[in-house]
Write a structure and sequence with these properties.
This protein is α+β, with helices and mostly antiparallel strands. It has helices at about 10-20, 35-40, 75-80, 85-95, 100-105, 105-110, 120-125, 140, 210-220, 245-260; strands at about 5, 25, 45-50, 60, 65-70, 130, 135-140, 145, 150, 155-160, 165-175, 180-190, 195-200, 205-210. The protein folds into three domains: about 5-50, Uridine Diphospho-n-acetylenolpyruvylglucosamine Reductase, domain 2; about 55-160, Uridine Diphospho-n-acetylenolpyruvylglucosamine Reductase, domain 3 (2-Layer Sandwich); about 165-260, CO dehydrogenase flavoprotein, C-terminal domain (Enolase-like, domain 1).
């Protein structure tokens, strides 16, 4: 590790001000940024830790039935909270190991937008709203490609608002070493609409499988997607799985999600 300045503001406004300094970067749970710094793939001169900002932590149910989760809330807190719906609870319970779940935060995961991260699939599937220190961004507009989001320089995820589906399921084919998703599918059924979001598969990052959504809106059963296929040309190809295998897994995980949500 190299020398850098460390700041730990207690309020959102103080954090925003600290991030205005040259080459400053926000630090959530540090599960991605710290290893990246150790490998010299990132070298910010100032780290602005968000871990001491109490207003960015916690989970609450809103008057409209949705759930708001503070950006600084850990995966472990999401997993054990009584108000969290089934699919999201399952997702949080199976992120990494206990150490990662107790340090990593939902805001950090969404801001980083790793192509194999789990939370982006949940946010995109339910049509979540990402609330920052300056605006609200719909999940459909937030994710803009691998490691790319609509966040502007110095913008912080304060909370995430999740509409609660009538049924949901997250099915993840785990890469054994990292426990990231080789392919993960989050399905949300709102009664009159079904949304399917896929992570871990595409070179473009998280995406909605619109053809599966259309079929499931006609007939919510795993049989409705049996004749569907997904184009493999934009899938990730690495030592763990080929493009073709990931495309196959998308369909398999979607069928499992439908069966589980049913």
């Amino acid at each position: 590790m190299y020398n850098f300045e460390f700041k730990q503001p207690k309020t959102i406004s103080d954090a925003v001000n600290a991030l205005e300094s040259d080459d400053a970067q926000a630090l959530g749970g540090g599960q991605t940024l710290i290893p990246t710094m150790k490998q010299r793939l990132a070298s910010p001169s100032t780290l602005v830790s968000l871990t001491a900002i109490s207003e960015m932590k916690g989970i609450c149910k809103n008057d409209d039935g949705s759930i708001s989760i503070g950006g600084g809330t850990t995966h472990a807190d999401v997993a054990c909270h009584s108000d969290i719906f089934f699919g999201l609870k399952t997702l949080a319970e199976n992120i990494g190991d206990a150490a990662v779940r107790n340090r990593g935060t939902i805001g950090g995961s969404l801001a980083n937008n790793d192509p194999a991260a789990c939370y982006p699939a949940a946010a995109l599937s339910v049509g979540a709203t990402i609330v920052t220190n300056s605006r609200e961004i719909s999940a459909d507009d937030f994710f803009q490609g691998m490691f790319d989001t609509a966040l502007e320089e110095g913008e912080i995820i304060v909370s995430v608002k999740f509409p609660v589906p009538s049924s949901s399921s997250y099915q993840k084919f785990v890469q054994p070493a990292s426990r990231f998703a080789m392919v993960g599918v989050f399905l949300s059924n709102f009664g009159n609409e079904t949304r399917v979001a896929v992570t871990g598969a595409s070179e473009g990052g998280v995406f909605r499988w619109c053809e599966a959504e259309a079929a499931l809106n006609e007939d919510f059963s795993d049989g409705s997607i049996k004749d569907l296929s997904i184009d493999h040309k934009d899938m990730i190809n690495d030592i763990h799985a080929s493009k073709e295998y990931r495309a196959h897994l998308v369909k398999v995980m979607t069928k499992r999600a439908v069966a589980n949500a049913s």
